[in-house]
Amino acid sequence: MNLKTLVCAASVFAMSAGMAHADAHSNADLKKALMDARAAISKALESMGGGMMEKASYDFPKLDGKQVTVVSWGGAYTKSQVEAYHKPFIAGTGAKIVSEDYNGGLAEIKAQVEAGNVTWDIVDVELSDAVRACDEGLAEELDMSDLPAGADGTPAADDFIAGTLDVPCAVPTIVWSTIFAYDSEKMSDGPKTIADFFDTKAFPGKRGLRKSPKANLEMALMADGVAADEVYDVLSEDDGVDRAFAKLDSIKDDVVWWEAGAQPPQLLADGEVAMTTAYNGRIFNAVAAEDKPFEIVWDGQVWDLDLWIIPKGAKNAEAAKEFLKFSTSTQALADQASWISYGPTRKSSSPLVASYDGKPDLKMGPQMPTAPENFKNALQNDFEFWADNQDELNERFNAWLAN
Amino acid sequence: MTEASYHTAPIPGAPTDGQSALLASDGTPLKTKLRESMRVSRMRAFGLVLPLLLFILASFIIPIIMLLWTGVYNATYAVNMPASAPIMQAWDGESQPTEAMAEAMVLDLVEARKAKTIGKVASRVNRELSGTRSLFTKSARRAAKMEAPFLAALEKADKDWADIETWRAIKIAATSLTPAYYAAAVDAKYTATGDFEMQGEERQIHVKLFWKTIWVSGVVMLACLFLGYPVAYLMSHLPAKTSNLLMILVLLPFWTSLLVRTTAWIAMLQSQGVLNDIFVWIGITSDEQRFSLIYNLTGTLIAMTHILLPFMILPIYSVMRAIPPSHVRAAKSLGATNWTSFWRVYFPATIPGIGAGGLLVFILSIGYYITPALVGGQDGQLISNFIAYHMQKSLNWSLAAALGGILLAIVLILYWLYDRVVGIDNMKLG
Fold it and tell me: To pair with B38 at 20 to 30 A between CA atoms, which of A197, A265, B58, B79?
């Protein structure tokens, strides 16, 4: 089958999924639409061969003397954005870009908006934070019809994975995942399943975990034998939360907590931990760019979206909107995916992603969280569950940590 | 020269009311004249201090007052849900929700959705009862189409509206001036019926943390005293050349950035770090069982003691310098042993320095933040890390303010205690 046909088929499939939920505002619909579309995307990604170079369907305006402050998660992830978004944008528009790092959350945005001194112009946030920022009036509403069409001519509304454009303040860029990884040089017969992560008898050594209940509770339940599609049902019950904490308790004394996404590869490299949870792109980058012998275990991965939001009252909102349009265009998303293994959210980007920068043998498709091989036991982060329960669960998590 | 020194002795027989005592050349009483000229210089002095006063007022006093106010006052609900807030406040929290409550609620939900404030309100109520966030955003989407009877319409939209706990949570959120945050800061819960009850065991955290913070501060203070006192003694007794070198060794770290010193400790103490390497090399421990010296309470204690040491050494040193050596010599010449002359003569004279250093180190460490955040791991976190957490992550500024208020009260109580026991006038800061 020729590549273009396949991509077209994928698009049609995903489009129909999107249309079925055209007025989908409820989050359950959004979730289902996402799941449908994922299959189509991974198909296209899997099959992609050489990079077909088509002209990006975005024309740079002249923005000389303008400046945009772009805030993201630092490290290899920010580097992928600098290479794929910032550099071409600076070259094309003449604008200046100030790049800042943060560790997620809405606190800084809230502080800036409430103080009336918004210095961040565009911020990379997780889905639950995007929804919350929009609800709380911390982000500008965006006109999605402004987004450029895909390189193959598909209108933006159909080009993005169905349902992902439903947050009225945010435009999605990538699909990323929380996975766990280990150093294959130190562990020849390494862990295979998420249960192995919690098995310190069979696999002795310290564990790295993000200092947040998010993803940890889900992984603990999956390790305890809960099926991925039942995790949030179990977590909605009080004894389900108890069960997750009990599982975490079993490794608590062996845990090293990390906060920034750049820490886990470092912890692994330093031998501070035997295995650690991490964002999949960070581990990929350590392997691809630094030749680290790290191995990703995809079983029990928890995947999520990252989106751009423009904080309410951003000083350079106009230039930021141009940056947003460019960076979510087909070619820019595809370029980013060749720097780090996060899946692009535009269907038209998938066929343009080929191999890791400078390493033609390192195909990006099989590295993506959504690749079928990796996606056998995967769970989507339920942003609504977390928006509802994060106050209480954070509180309990902190109390659990301190006791 | 003071005002009083211009007065002359009263002349016998002359009127003593001061009115006609002395006159200036233009006939006004000298006292008035003097007061006028003094007023100018006093105004000038005040004018010079004014910028500092305004600065302190604007950057210190007012923020502290506002912060303390945030800890007892949160009007998010009352401002954004004006119709239902008074009705909810008036409700007793026991009887069944009424139609009037439901009607006001629907009205507010519609308006809040239009004004895009529903998310703020939902987040506020969600802090009282998890799950009400989606209840509010979902109900607000449907509220515009709801018709009387509203109570039934709400319950039809979501069965959680039939749960009295939902309404109780709303009542708590609707009350703007509330002790709820201070209650939460001491692990209690303020209920809709106006009672306090303790939180469940698995969620209690703040009281333990306050005690832990005080305990850590005490340990750091004592460690600084035991390490710092001999150093201060050497510095004040060695010949100038050696003591200057010692002084530089104390001051160099003092001048170095806090972050640099803390990260240096990470390099020293981590399991593949310098100290553990040495331990393995000399055989104190095996390569597999290296000590956990960092990312726990031990790391916090070590790094904090090192960082706060100069604050103990310098006040003690300045006091020791001022003790005449003749006192100890006199004690010895009267037959005191080395120990007696130290303990009964020298040591009491250094107490103002110990007091100053102790108070300084204790108060600094009770609010310490960066070091525990970097090297504390999970069990080395102090209360200030939780205040930062509620400011930065959970966005519960009111709870952060309440925790900060309690911390401020603890420091003031300590200060008062110190004043009663040692006397603040005895404190010497160098």
Answer: B58
Chain A residue nearest residue B209, CA to CA:
A402
Determine the Cα–Cα distance for residues A279 and A77; give it in Å rounded to an integer.
Answer: 10
Q: Are B309 and B227 in contact (CB under 8 A)?
A: yes
Neighbour tally for B131: CB within 10 Å: 18
- Residues of A with CB below 8 A from B204's CB? 399
Q: What does the alpha-carbon distance between residue A277 and residue A256 come to, in Å, rounded to a whole number? A: 11
- Interface contact flag, B378 A271, Cβ < 8 Å: no
Structural tokens at position B46? 């005040």
Same domain assignment for residues A118 and A97: yes
Please name every residue paired with A139 in a beta bridge, in sequence order, or none if there are none.
A311
**Residue A108: its chain B contacts at CB < 8 A?**
392
Tell me if chain B has a CB within 8 Å of the CB of A387.
Answer: yes
Shortest Cα distance, chain A CAs vs residue B91, angstroms? 26
Taking the C-alpha atoms of residue B236 and residue B317, their distance in angstroms, rounded to an integer, is 6
Taking an 8 Å cut-off on Cβ atoms, the answer to whether A395 and B203 are in contact is yes
Look at A401 and B386 and tell me if their CB atoms are within 8 Å: no
Identify the three-state secondary structure at position A258: strand
Question: Is A300:A223 a contact under the CB 8 Å cutoff?
Answer: yes
Contacts of B147 (CB under 8 A, 6+ apart): B153
Q: Tell me which chain A residues have a C-beta less than 8 angstroms from the C-beta of B391.
A: 107
pLDDT, position B114: 86
pLDDT value, residue A16: 40
How many whole angstroms separate alpha carbon B399 and alpha carbon B8? 63
State ipTM: 0.70
The answer on A184 and A268 residing in a single domain is yes
Task: For residue A316, give its domain range.
Answer: 3-176+305-377
Q: Band of the pLDDT at A30, cuts 50, 70, 90?
A: low
Please state, for a pLDDT cut of 70, what percent of chain B lies above it. Answer: 94
Sorted by sequence, the CB contacts under 8 Å of residue A246 that are 6+ apart come out as: none
Q: Mind listing the pLDDT tens digit for each residue in A354-395? A: 788 777 888 888 888 888 888 888 898 988 888 888 888 988
Please give the single-letter amino acid code of residue A188. Answer: S
Residue numbers of the domain that contains B163 = 76-200
Q: Tell me how many domains chain B contains.
A: 3
Residue A50, pLDDT score: 39
Residues A84, A233 share a domain: no
Q: Hey, is the C-beta of A399 within 8 angstroms of any chain B C-beta?
A: yes
Is residue A55 within 8 angstroms of chain B, CB to CB? Answer: no
- pTM of the full structure: 0.75
Return the SS3 of B195: coil
Chain A residue numbers touching B386 (CB-CB < 8 A): 398
Rg (CA), chain B: 32
User: Cβ(A203)–Cβ(A187) under 8 Å?
Assistant: yes
Contact at CB, A134 and B379, closer than 8 angstroms: no
Q: Is there a single domain that holds both residue A291 and residue A360?
A: no
pLDDT single digits (tens) A206-226: 999 998 899 999 999 999 999
Residues A114, A195: one domain? no
Residues B37 and B407: their CA atoms lie apart, in Å, by 46
Out of B202, B272, B396, closest to residue A396 by CB: B202
Question: Residue B3: what pLDDT?
Answer: 44
A293 C-beta neighbours (distance < 10 Å), count:
14
Please name the member of B116, B130, B205 whose beta carbon is closest to the beta carbon of A398: B205
Longest dimension (CA), chain A: 61
Look at residue A72 and tell me whether its pLDDT is greater than 80.
yes
Q: Which of B200, B216, B243 corresponds to the end of one domain?
A: B200
Q: What is the average pLDDT score of chain A? A: 84
pLDDT digits (tens, 9 = 90+) for A303-342: 999 999 999 999 999 999 999 999 999 989 989 998 899 9
Query: Tokens at residue B111, please?
Result: 């308006």
- For B305-339, what is each residue's pLDDT tens digit? 999 999 999 999 999 999 999 999 999 999 999 99
